[in-house]
Design brief:
heterodimer, A: alpha+beta, two-stranded antiparallel ribbon, 6 helices, 21% strand, globular, B: alpha+beta, Immunoglobulin-like, 10 strands, binds copper (II) ion, LpqE-like (chain B), Copper(I)-binding protein (chain B), signal (chain B), Lxx211020-like (chain B)
Chain lengths: 193, 155
């Protein structure tokens, strides 16, 4: 906790000195690079390094979520569609499902296709999901099943952004003005490399 | 409001006195429904068996509080009322049993707030279709509403 606080303070001070600061929350110094072992929409094992080479936005959710997840992804899609063609080719969105029992590769493929070609669904064994959520210090929690076997999942509401080398850059929340989130996404996707 | 009830009673009276009690009930429903107005009703649809979300505005221009207690649709096996909220970086969603709308009040079911959750599709639906939904109130009143089926990207 103390370490986290110190890291947060350090990044705040650094951000103040740097002309490279993001409008949303800078996580460059407090979050590790993009890394994981998960399963993609084709059922293949994939790793974080497979997604280097493009700016990457990461969101943790589940497809049985009718409101927050699709709205969050749609808004990211809107921002991405506003980019020019070349910049749009430099960005991808990883939707990491924390609900692997319902979110099979087939379900995730159909789901992410609804948002655009930049959207990629990933999930995996519970231990693999826990490794990623622990790495980015977020939590998720399953609700009780109802008589139909349906359950809700409480999950992180943040979108994490990484540069094309997989280095953590910024974190977006609903509390950030949309214009700030859009400006940061645009700048991240336009960064050369 | 009074003439409305009178009209209904009149019509029903032709069909026989036995229907009188029923007619009074229906009459009451019709009169009250005219004080409830739903607008901008949209059903955000996702592929496969993924649940959909319903958004709308509901205004109560009547003199009394009405209580929304649920909804149903022939297109889905079940419809629940939910609220999404954010707390300490976590997105939560929970079901609610009822929602009061005071006289003169206008409530909004909107993204990342109140929504209807449509589960297990019975009828095939696609963007551009209409979905029939009935809003249910605590006084047995039922308000039919036609929702436009849309993509979440349009919200
Ligand atoms: Cu819901």
């Amino acid at each position: 906790m103390y370490k986290l606080l110190f890291a947060g303070l350090a990044s705040f001070v650094l951000a103040g000195c740097s002309d490279q600061s993001w409008r949303t929350t800078d996580i460059g110094d407090i979050m590790p690079p993009l890394d994981f072992t998960l399963t993609n929409e084709e059922g293949e094992t994939v790793h974080g390094e497979d997604y280097r080479g493009k700016a990457t936005l990461v969101y943790f959710g589940y497809t049985f979520c009718p409101d927050v997840c699709p709205i969050t992804l749609s808004r990211l899609g809107d921002t991405i569609r506003d980019l020019d063609d070349e910049t749009r080719d430099n960005i991808q969105v990883l939707f990491i499902s924390v609900d692997p029992s319902r979110d099979t590769p087939e379900v995730l493929k159909r789901y992410t296709d609804a948002f655009g070609p930049e959207f990629i669904g990933l999930s995996g064994e519970q231990a693999e999901i826990d490794a990623v959520t622990n790495r980015y210090r977020i939590a998720y929690e399953y609700g009780e099943e109802n008589e139909n076997g349906d359950y809700l999942v409480t999950h992180s509401s943040a979108v994490f952004a990484f540069d094309r080398e997989g280095q953590a850059q910024f974190l977006m929340r609903d509390s950030h003005p949309v214009s700030d989130a859009e400006a940061d996404i645009k700048r991240l996707a336009s960064q050369g490399g | 409001m009074a003439s409305n009830v009178f009209d209904v009673l009149n019509n029903r009276a032709c069909r026989g006195l036995a229907l009188g009690a029923l007619a009074l009930m229906l009459g009451t429903g019709v009169a009250q429904a005219s004080t409830l107005e739903v607008s901008n009703a949209r059903l955000s649809l996702l592929p496969g068996n993924t649940p959909g979300a319903g958004y709308f505005e509901l205004a109560n221009s009547g003199e009394e509080t009405v209580t929304l207690v649920g909804a149903e649709s022939p297109a889905f096996e079940s419809v629940e009322m939910h609220v999404s909220s954010e707390h300490e970086g976590m997105a939560h969603m929970h079901a609610i049993e009822s929602l009061d709308i005071a006289p003169g009040e206008r409530i909004e079911f909107a993204p990342k707030g109140h929504h209807l959750m449509f589960m297990r599709r019975i009828e095939a639906l696609s963007e551009g279709d209409k979905a029939e939904v009935v809003l249910e109130f605590s006084d047995e009143q039922r308000l039919p509403v036609t929702f436009d089926v849309v993509s979440p990207a349009s919200l």
